[in-house]
Amino acid sequence: MRNHSAITAFTMLGFTNDSQLQILIFIYLFITYMLSVLGNLIIISLILVDSHLKTAMYFFLQNFSLLEILMTTACVPRYLHILLTGDRAITVKACFSQLFFVILFAATEFFLLVVMSYDRYVAICKPLYYMIITHDRICRILILCCWVFGLLIILPPLGLSLHLEFCDSVIDHFYCDASPILKNSCSDTWFIEQLVIVGAVLTFVMNLVCIVLSYILIIKTILRLPSAQQRNKAFSTCFSHIIVVSMTYGSCIFIYIKPSAKDEVAINKIISLFPTSVAPLLNPFIYTLRNKQVKQSFNDILKRLAFLSKK
């Protein structure tokens, strides 16, 4: 019988052992990570310095950009270190820490997407009450609730998982995810798995229902608007959020709809790149390309910098 207590570290397999592919993966992840952080920092900075971007919508967007930075930072730099050094070992404590932050940021992001859809609902369906309902204090409370709900989702299963014994040490992923960690355990993980499922359903399904209901009401209101110009303007304010929601939920659906057990791990790893690497890169472009105020703010900042550089 193996000595379970001897396992103090896991071995993270990542994507491949092929050295040439590892170089390509490193270049891709490094570039997308740097651009993701830069793009989201630009969004955060613009909203901080521009007085025209002080509404609730941009406050929530600022927090969403922060979560995108945190999410990609929780996953990508560790794997870049593995690719750079070849050291695939990660301590059990470090692995659980990474798992905690990844799920916390992901769950909080899901709840924030609901808040952002509610903001669009109020702006379009209750425009006269928008400034009252989306007061600064209420917005801060909503953000705090997103973080609290995220913590409530992760803490129960994580707390129980800390007492597990392990008889295998291989993490077949590029970051510490719940499924490969539980597969390494010799202990009975049935109850933990049920908690994970309940948490996933509460986070995924209930939030999606809230978002769909919000947009049903939004669409009904928009269709009642008298002019095509008003309808187009109202739709344009929701377009970016709809794309982000579609990408976020779409990647999760693909992860859980598996073609076969044999392909499950490989497909999960590839699709997991989307919320951890691709989405944080695309979201700043999605929100800026469709938003005249953000584009105007960005152009104004560039003009100021150009003017100062000429002095």
Automatic annotation (TrEMBL):
Residues 39-287 form the G-protein coupled receptors family 1 profile domain. The lineage of its organism: Eukaryota, Metazoa, Chordata, Craniata, Vertebrata. SUPFAM superfamilies: Family A G protein-coupled receptor-like. GO terms for cellular component: plasma membrane. The keyword Membrane applies. This is Olfactory receptor. Belongs to the G-protein coupled receptor 1 family. It comes from the Eukaryota. GO terms for molecular function: G protein-coupled receptor activity; olfactory receptor activity. It is a multi-pass membrane protein.
